[in-house]
Amino acid sequence: MTTAVHVQTVEGFGTVTVRPVDPDVDAPLLHGWVNEERARFWGMVGTTVEQVREIYAHLDSLTTHHGYLVSRDGEPVALLQTYDPEADRVSECYEVRPGDIGVHLFIAPGLAPEPGFTGRILTALVDFTLTDRTRIVIEPDAANEKAIARMVRAGFVLGPEVVLPEVDLPEVFIPEKRARLAFLSR
Questions:
Q1: Residue 115 dihedral angles phi and psi, to the nearest 5°
Q2: Cβ atoms of 111 and 117 closer than 8 Å
Q3: Residue pair 124/8 in contact by the 8 Å Cβ criterion
Q4: Pfam families under this entry (predicted)?
Q5: Which of 32, 138, 7, 14 is nearest to 85 (CA)?
Q6: How many Cα atoms occupy the beta-carbon half-sphere of 38 within 13 Å?
């Protein structure tokens, strides 16, 4: 089991723990999450457990991109990915500043509705991602109005709608994506 890289108690919510994804251990759990219809914007619907394991093993091999499993009081509740925008296709769509960090967040399916859940988990995740950075950039699918509205409520400032170019490498294929940039500064 991998070691936590961030532990934070959020008042009235619980203890949020962030640890690196362990591709071999976590692939079955993540596969269940990313294959639900609500995960279509994550782009992994239709993958097998082995494909999910391979994707996160590849991510784990990079120094610029990282995957994290987020738990609340020991229960997995989210998947967080961070990346250096200069090493990502998003850099073709905006002027990257020193101190920028890119973030993807996926809240686990099947959780009982809990008012304020995402906002509270974001409290800990923003603290974690801005530990040694000054600005978060996100680029949710432009059609994912729910995610965009949630990030605006969390204090993100909307940027332009952009088209992220296709990535076609031997180890990864990511299709072109219409995205909405948003930023949160420390």
A1: -55, 130
A2: yes
A3: yes
A4: Acetyltransf_8
A5: 138
A6: 10
Angstrom distance (rounded) from CA 119 to CA 107: 11
Contact (CB, 8 A) for 135 and 126: no
Distance CA 146, CA 163 (A): 19
What pLDDT shows up at residue 6? 97
Q: Give how far Cα 5 sits from Cα of 8, 17, 18, 22, 120, Å.
A: 10, 8, 6, 13, 18
* Mean pLDDT in consecutive groups of 10 residues from the start of the chain, 186 residues: 91 96 97 87 85 92 96 96 94 95 90 84 95 95 90 94 79 78 94
Residues facing 82 on adjacent strands:
66, 103
Judge contact between 115 and 121, C-beta under 8 A. no
Tokens of 10: 């959020």
DSSP 105: E
Q: How many CB atoms are closer than 10 A to CB 150?
A: 17
Q: Decide if 164 contacts 139 (C-beta within 8 A).
A: yes
Cα separation, 57 vs 146, in Å, equals 30
- Tell me which H or E stretch contains 107: strand 100-107
Q: Is 164 buried (19+), middle (13-18) or exposed (0-12) by CB count in 10 A?
A: buried
